[in-house]
Amino acid sequence: MLKVINPYTRQLIKEIPTDTAETIHKKWETARIAQTHWRQTPLMRRMEIIARFRVLLQDNLDRLAQLLMSEVGKPISQAQNELRGTQGRLDFFLQNIESALKTDTVLSDKGNEERISWDPLGVIANISAWNYPYFVGTNVFIPAILTGNTVLYKPSEYSTLTGIEFSKLLTQAGLPEGVFSLILGARAQAEQLLERPLNGVFFTGSRNTGLSINRAVAGQLCKVQLELGGKDPVYVRDDANVRIAAESLADGAFYNTGQSCCSVERIYVHDMIYKDFVQHFVNTVKGFKIGDPSDAQTYIGPLTRKQQIDVLKAQVKDAVAKGARLEVGGGVWKEHDGFFEPTVLTNADHTMEVMREESFGPIIGIQPVRSDDEAIELMNDTEYGLTAGVYTSDQEEAEVLLDRVNAGTVYWNCCDRVSPRLPWTGRRGSGIGSTLSMLGIRSFLQPKAWHLVQPKG
Ligand code: NAD
Fold it and tell me: Which of 121, 131, 143, 168 has the fewest Cβ atoms within 10 Å of its own Cβ atom?
């Protein structure tokens, strides 16, 4: 049984029976059979179903946002934002699916023709995370379904209720049985799912779990795509607008209570503007409202997984012991032990865990630097490579610097954002492959190369 507990009220919301090896096998078998029909289903029909699902998300927006808030503790305004953003992504998929599937004729010459066409992968497993379940779920299973795959979706054990809603709404939208199946449970059920023969494994979650999944399916020779964590750096140059940069970066670090894969996790500031930046940054953080996630003004909610508090405490202790200055926060909120206070550590450096290991919570390290070169070297000095940003008034310099950063996404004067038109892709410890954009649709397809020669004579 999975116990779904509200991290704010601490009430048990629901107990949910989990899948067993037998039920997982049955769902896999159904998905395998359904795929042979689904891939033949005309694209227009597949698009109609997903368009109807989009309408259902819109019609149920408030209820779905409440549900997300109740199971992960996300402040209600941020839960609503996530649902609105999900609709923009569905629109992108619906608008671009036809061109992603279009056969390209790459040569047509004297009776010779060469073409590339696109086939679905087959049956895919989607093992997902809880921090943005509407985003990271639909980023995978919507293009997977539109391209003719069938999906076995294992939501995180911390966001099972939103996973169940996906299944209900897709069925209500007219999706045939077996095209999208829920696997309910935690690690054990995910591992059992990976024992089935699969044509693709799409994972969103932590780096360590990504490594285990990669090992678990190594013998299958199926496509593996991993969207993992980050330690996303930003550099503020001495020519940046200090107040605007500080406010923007405080939001980038603390939105979603710091539990975003692309949260700003470390900041390097040129020492010419360092003092001024820290002052604006700390003032902004002090203004964040912490508390009841159902209050529309709340910005910082409880942590979804209470055990992350130990990681945050250890990072603060380590940093302070090594000489960091605690500007604000630093521990569990005195009014509710499921919260961690928004925490700012300054004079940080790379001997400290807070500057090199993912925090995934409301905490940030700020380090002064003396030059662009020093900033770039530090930005590249972790195992991760998800996003990185530079704040400066000089676009040309920004582009030169961002070109030297080894990350899948780079930002100039912005942070913590995702566009459906651009690939969402990590490097090194942040993952393999892309979702979103045309590349993210093609992730669920395999090319077929055609050589066609007209008969001679
Ligand atoms: P997690 O790795 O703990 O769990 C993710 C999923 O994996 C869950 O469904 C879980 O049940 C399953 N799982 C756990 N152990 C497993 C195993 N050994 N084999 C197979 N499956 C297993 O991650 P989380 O706490 O849900 O999510 C937080 C992490 O996800 C952070 O590191 C965050 O940065 C990352 N994340 C990355 C992106 C991205 O797009 N790059 C997006 C969201 C979250």
Answer: 168
